[in-house]
Design goal:
CATH architecture of the largest domain: 3-Layer(bba) Sandwich
Number of domains: 2
Structural class: alpha+beta
CATH class of the largest domain: Alpha Beta
CATH superfamily of the largest domain: FAD/NAD(P)-binding domain
Number of strands: 20
Order of helices and strands: EHEEHEEHEEEHEEEEHEEEEEHHHEEEH
Distance between the termini: 20 Å
Radius of gyration: 20 Å
Helix content: 25-40%
Length: 378
């Protein structure tokens, strides 16, 4: 048979896309692992983002704001536990206050409600802040659980433990044989650029490492506490999150991974490493960020240095209460100029639609991304 749609990737974006397609359509979805949400979806901070950081008018901004609402609606409709806790973005010194004001202005451009606080301790009694921006619509959820519910609702054929090997026009060659589809939708995350044969971007994997906060230190965090992002470094920085199950974790940092699914330093792929190191865009990025990148590596290797980053936000958190937790890898698309793609990259080539960049807030925005792809596929 020829399917109307074939989706590559069983993360939350692939599953949300399957749900958004017409009920009358025949759908097959391929996931190379033996479970859904095994990579980015199941290895992140579990935050329902609000849309504070993203450029007004961008897909990220629009889909994060709309996705915040649609994700909450989905969770309510299917009895998935979630909590709208709000979060604090804190300036820890006077030099960061101006950057925080710019973030407030950006949020206003995205119609995200925020509140300026001179006394952040009214929300987080132990925080270190000279000023803070409170974002009340931010929340937390277990995205792996969301993905499992989505999978149970998909009207179609779900092929687990099935790796896509090649696409030839309307034929998808897999480890379970060949399938045909009128429209192919590539939601392969860390491998999306390879499947798309993308020239405009390349995925460069950055590992984000986490610590669980235990002991007495865990009681020092009520909600979510973020630093003001460093404008010279393209990641948000280590933050503190009280998850939906009540545990507190710190992270992530951002270190180059030597394998696209490299969750530990010893995980190395020659092909993946060569893909990164032979790409001019990577070296341009490295030339601009080598100093901060070096600090990230040192923080990865030293719990003491990681603890210092956490203590900038909450000084009373003790190093001894930090315990290594599973890491994630961010599928970040990098342009030839050495800039991180600052928006979702969704391109159509012939009968195929490729999601070539959907890192954070991809999980928050997944339902909206799925609806966007469904409209584009008509």
């Amino acid at each position: 048979m020829t399917f109307d749609y074939a989706i590559i990737g069983g993360g939350i974006v692939g599953l949300a896309t399957a749900l958004a397609l017409p009920e009358s359509a025949s759908v097959v979805l391929f996931e190379k692992e033996n479970a859904f949400a095994a990579h980015q979806t199941g290895r992140n901070s579990g935050v329902i983002h609000s849309g504070v950081y993203y450029r007004p008018g961008s897909l990220k901004a629009r889909m994060a704001v709309e996705g915040n609402r649609s994700m909450v609606e989905f969770c309510r409709a299917h009895a998935i536990p979630f909590a709208i806790t709000g979060k604090l973005i804190v300036a820890t010194n006077d030099a960061e206050v101006a950057r925080l004001r710019k973030l407030e202005e950006n949020a206003r451009g995205n119609s995200v409600v925020t509140r300026w606080l001179e006394q952040a301790t009214e929300i987080e009694p132990h925080v270190n802040a000279v000023a803070a921006l409170h974002v009340p619509s931010t929340g937390v959820v277990d995205y792996r659980r969301v993905a499992d519910v989505m999978a149970s609702l998909v009207r179609g054929q779900l092929e687990l433990s099935c790796r896509v090997l090649e696409i030839r026009d309307d034929v998808i060659a897999t480890t379970r044989g060949e399938f045909r589809a009128k429209t192919i939708i590539n939601c392969a995350g860390l491998f999306a650029d390879r499947i798309a044969h993308a020239e405009e971007v390349r995925i460069v994997p950055f590992r984000g490492e986490y610590y669980d906060v235990g002991g007495e230190s865990a009681s020092l965090v009520r909600t979510l506490i973020y630093p003001v992002p460093n404008p010279d470094f393209p990641f948000l920085g280590v933050h503190l999150t009280r998850g939906i199950e009540g545990h507190v974790h710190a992270g992530p940092n951002a270190v180059l991974a030597f394998k696209r699914e490299g969750y530990r330093w010893r995980d190395v792929s020659v092909r993946d490493t060569l893909d990164t190191f032979t790409y001019g865009g990577f070296w341009r990025l490295a030339a601009r960020n080598w100093e901060e990148g070096g600090r990230e590596v040192m923080r990865s290797l030293s719990r003491r240095l990681f603890a210092r980053s956490v203590q900038r936000l909450v000084p009373a958190i003790a190093e001894r209460d930090l315990h290594r937790a599973p890491a994630g890898v961010r599928a970040q698309a990098l342009t030839p100029s050495g800039s991180l793609a600052d928006d979702f990259v969704i391109v159509r080539r012939g009968r195929a639609i490729h999601v070539c960049n959907a890192p954070s807030p991809g999980a928050t925005a997944s339902i909206e991304i799925g609806r966007f792809i469904a409209r584009e596929s008509v």
